C-alpha cells in the first residue's frame, strides 16, 4: 500500500505540490487527474524513487520509494521503447536489470498480447497500439510492486485507446499490481480507477478523492 503524508514539492520556492495526503490500497488502481502542470509527473517521479527532492512522508509498503529495493514498472506516454533495440530486447530491459541477465523471455505474456510475430522488429516498424503492447509487456513482465502509468494511452487514437484499456484490465486482473495512473481523460479515470484523485492547478493540491461508484460492490 502507498501512504503519502504532508507531501510538499517546491521548485525555486514556488510550491508545485502542496500538502498531498493520500492512501492507496494494495492491489488497486488509483487514477490521478488534473490540469497540465499541476504536478502529476512530479508525483509519479517521487513514487518511482527518482525524485527525492520533497518534504513529507512517502511510503510504498512501509519503505521509502527506491528503484533498488522495490520493483517499479513505468509506462510513459510515448511508450519508452529504445529505438535501437528489437521488441524482444525492449521487453527484456527491465527483467534483465532486475535479474542480472538471467531471465527467461515471458512467452505467456507475449502470447496473450499477440506479440509473437513482432519480436524481431524494431519499434519504428510497429503501430502505436503495438508499441503500447510492448510497453505493457515490459512492465508486466516485472511482476512489479508498483506500476506507474503517465498518460499511457494518450498518444493513441480513440479506438485503439479503448482497446488498450481493456488489454490493461486483462493484464492487471492477473497480477493485481498496485497501479497509479495519471490521465487527463475523465472517462479513462472512471473506467480504470477504483479511486480517483482530482488535483487543482498549480500549486497541485488534492481537490477531491472519489471512491469510484462504478466499482462499488
Ligand atoms: P503535470 O505532469 O501535471 O503536467 P509536472 O509534474 O510535469 O506536471 O510539472 C509540475 C510543475 O513543475 C510545472 O509547472 C513544471 O513547469 C514544473 N517543473 C517540473 N519539473 C521542474 C524542474 N525540474 N524545475 C523547475 N520546475 C519544474
Ligand atoms: P494502427 O491502426 O494500429 O495505427 P498502423 O496503420 O500504424 O496501425 O499499422 C498497420 C500495420 O502496419 C501494423 O501491423 C504494423 O506492424 C505495420 N507497420 C506500421 N508501420 C510500419 C513500418 N514503419 N514498417 C513496417 N511495418 C509497419
Automatic annotation (TrEMBL):
<dbReference type="GO" id="GO:0016887">
    <property type="term" value="F:ATP hydrolysis activity"/>
</dbReference>
<feature type="domain" description="ABC transporter">
    <location>
        <begin position="2"/>
        <end position="217"/>
    </location>
</feature>
<dbReference type="Pfam" id="PF00005">
    <property type="entry name" value="ABC_tran"/>
</dbReference>
<keyword id="KW-0378">Hydrolase</keyword>
<keyword id="KW-0067">ATP-binding</keyword>
<dbReference type="InterPro" id="IPR003439">
    <property type="entry name" value="ABC_transporter-like_ATP-bd"/>
</dbReference>
<dbReference type="InterPro" id="IPR017871">
    <property type="entry name" value="ABC_transporter-like_CS"/>
</dbReference>
<keyword id="KW-0547">Nucleotide-binding</keyword>
<dbReference type="InterPro" id="IPR003593">
    <property type="entry name" value="AAA+_ATPase"/>
</dbReference>
<dbReference type="InterPro" id="IPR027417">
    <property type="entry name" value="P-loop_NTPase"/>
</dbReference>
<dbReference type="GO" id="GO:0005524">
    <property type="term" value="F:ATP binding"/>
</dbReference>
<protein>
    <submittedName>
        <fullName>Aliphatic sulfonates import ATP-binding protein SsuB</fullName>
        <ecNumber>3.6.3.-</ecNumber>
    </submittedName>
</protein>
<keyword id="KW-0813">Transport</keyword>
<dbReference type="InterPro" id="IPR050166">
    <property type="entry name" value="ABC_transporter_ATP-bind"/>
</dbReference>
